[in-house]
Amino acid sequence: MVAKRIIPCLDVKDGAVVKGINFEGLREVGDAVAMGVEYSRQGADELVYLDISASKESRSTFTQLVERIALGIDIPFTVGGGIGSLDDAARLLDSGADKISVNSAAVARPELISEIAGRYGSQFVVCAIDAKCIDGRWTVTTHGGSRPTERELFAWAREVQERGAGEILFTSMDHDGTRAGYACEQYAQMAEFLRIPVIASGGAGSIDDIAEVLTAGRADAALAASIFHYGTIPIPTLKAALRKRGITIR
Asked: Which of 164 and 21 is assigned the larger pLDDT?
């Protein structure tokens, strides 16, 4: 069995890590670099940093932050938020990011995935997909889950794979921040037809939730924020509990 990964997610606004529910009611929870260093020390396999205030004004600040993160930690990290062009991706990869994550811009112009993968390779490209169940249909959303699109979750996952994404980060907006468990059924469906790894995001509230999405949900990695940020489940405790259940963890 391929070893599963545990990935803390750090939502960054104006250089600080924040957390809310469904991207609303945000409050500051810590320093982006210091938290990354601590998660690396605890045994996180990777980190994901998302610039949720991505705008022209904040891009230079985030680029400088990425440079500081790259100097401070020794595990792979992905950055996303506001990446709308090959130049945007290049700027962050050149600043030290191991991978970049594209989302809304890729939905608007899917060729972006192919362009970045063509220049840097699929292993550098994570396609983040935010979706929610609307009238019984899993609908892809953009702009932090606030704008439904015409795209259907599973069809879009297939397309981003074919366009060259090396990994998918799927967040159920119905579950995000609720600590009520992941959308395991949807992850299991994805595993049936995807060749690339899927990172599960949205809803982690307990060790049971993470164990379920890595087994029944067949996800390759579990991403979480609140349970790590607030010390609810330390990463060493989580990994020890998952190993005890027979789950192969890095």
From this structure: 164
